[in-house]
């Protein structure tokens, strides 16, 4: 459970604050990233398991950077963390804007998009891991946006209770497929298809969908495109660049439905549909 004490209780101080300020100002070059990694290691050893409260790009978050790569990136180097993708999603902003964030983790995408879009927007943050979901809820409540709904389930190729594979050294790496780790934990979680999720929420269209499900993107998209009407095809899909883990060629699947790749970043592929 999250510590109920108010935001700011765990504000970084001393050497921790100094290192965070320095790593957040480093360039995205190889050298900048290398220096950030070295400085991060120094601070991580001294934190002794406590969370940290920070405001980043206008978003408040309580970060627990242990065994979660996502939270370490937010804490030390948010300037490297998918800002081009987030900007592209937010650029779709209009009165009835709808964004689904599948594999939301602690809410980085959802919160930064929420800060940029209008108050009538609807953002669905989907996260199946109970511990991470608890942090997601806490971070949503720390901010005044009012446009994010958190959903604690997996998105899969079928509805029901499914096994989720976890990397105990990186809690952000959870998948319906076995994760790339010598150690693997499993939990049972509720799951729905993407189309069922959309129908449950009563969405008539989708502006953007981000999938980050550690190689199980094909399990989600293949049945979605077989069953969903074209009116529900999102304008934008953002997926991780992990083709070696797909059993279905997701690029070809998207291109066959009228999408074209418009951006490739260090980690992700962006597809847009006219």
TrEMBL record:
Pfam families: Methyltransf_21
Superkingdom of origin: Bacteria
Record-linked SUPFAM superfamilies: S-adenosyl-L-methionine-dependent methyltransferases
Domain Methyltransferase FkbM: 101-221
InterPro entries linked to this entry: FkbM_mtfrase (IPR006342), SAM-dependent_MTase (IPR052514), SAM-dependent_MTases_sf (IPR029063)
Alphabetized UniProt keyword annotations: Methyltransferase, Transferase
BP GO annotations: methylation
GO MF terms held by the record: methyltransferase activity
UniProt-recorded name of the protein: FkbM family methyltransferase
Organism: Microvirga vignae
Lineage of origin: Bacteria, Pseudomonadati, Pseudomonadota, Alphaproteobacteria, Hyphomicrobiales
């Amino acid at each position: 459970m999250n510590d109920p004490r108010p935001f700011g209780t765990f504000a970084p101080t001393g050497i921790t604050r100094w290192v965070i300020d320095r790593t957040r100002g480093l360039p995205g070059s190889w050298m900048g990233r290398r220096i950030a990694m070295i400085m991060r290691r120094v601070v991580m050893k001294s934190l002794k398991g406590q969370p940290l409260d920070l405001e980043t790009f206008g978003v408040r978050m309580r970060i627990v950077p242990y065994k979660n790569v996502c939270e370490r990136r937010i804490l030390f180097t948010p300037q490297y963390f998918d800002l081009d993708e987030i900007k592209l999603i937010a650029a779709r902003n209009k009165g009835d804007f709808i964004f689904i964030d599948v594999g939301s983790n602690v809410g980085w995408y959802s919160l930064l998009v929420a800060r940029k879009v209008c108050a009538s927007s609807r953002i669905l943050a989907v996260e199946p891991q109970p511990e991470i979901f608890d942090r997601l809820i806490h971070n949503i409540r720390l901010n005044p946006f009012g446009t994010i709904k958190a959903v604690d389930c997996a998105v899969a190729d079928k509805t029901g209770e499914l096994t989720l594979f976890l990397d105990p050294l990186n809690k952000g790496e959870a998948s319906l497929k076995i994760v790339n780790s010598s150690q693997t934990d499993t939990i049972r979680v509720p799951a729905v298809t993407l189309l069922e999720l959309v129908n449950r929420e009563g969405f008539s269209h989708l502006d953007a969908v981000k999938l980050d499900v550690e190689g199980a993107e094909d399990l989600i998209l293949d049945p979605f495109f077989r069953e969903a009407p074209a009116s529900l095809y999102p304008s934008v899909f953002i997926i991780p660049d992990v083709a070696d883990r797909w059993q279905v060629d997701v690029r070809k699947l998207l291109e066959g439905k009228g999408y074209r790749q418009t951006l490739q970043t260090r980690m992700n592929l962006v597809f847009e549909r006219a």
